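User: Sequence in, structure out. Go.
Assistant: Echoing your sequence, followed by the structure tokens.
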Amino acid sequence: MPVWCSMYFQNSVSLVMEQLLYFHDYSMIIMLGVMITVGYFIGDFCLAKYYNRGIHEGQKLEGLWTVLPGLLLLLIVFPSLKTLYFMEESDMADMSIKVMAHQWYWEFEYFGVLEEEIESYMKDKGVFRLLEVDNWLLVPFGVGLKIIVSSFDVIHSWTIPAIGLKVDAVPGRLNQLFTLFNRPGTYIGQCSEICGANHSFMPISMGVLSVAGFFSKMM
């Protein structure tokens, strides 16, 4: 990841986040080109020494500045749709995890490779205040994960910035995302929806292990 990009984003640990960073860099290049071009014409117009009152229209120019922005939008739309569809691709998933939001804790349920259900509450004491939980969500890296998110009470938001996932947990609705970790580690997130008085007490702690380490922990 570029150095300047690390000023704004956490280091990518999933294919989804990598796609989001690539799209960000790509769209910023297009926007920079647009800003330079528009700035040049504005400056040229302001510094011009004459203005021709006889010119009231220019069909070719009007057609150009109508078609060109449309082409630039198409250059942004297609990569954006590709990234969006990749985030929701479920055919590549080897394991499913159901995330249920409660006031004020998370419940995780594994499907597919194993059947397991855990509840994750924030710990009263820890090294990282408001970010440590008693039961971590453990997942293997290199394995496609389908994450299904919903809520029992109010709207929450399951968010982990390092993997590029942010999905609303809405009562009575199942939202789904796909991710694939490319290296192990520990990653932290929080509920990013203003869901009530104890909104800040819903941390998400995720541990990404090797496949062997994952099964040794879970079995």
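User: And one key feature?
Assistant: The chain is about 30% helix and 30% strand.
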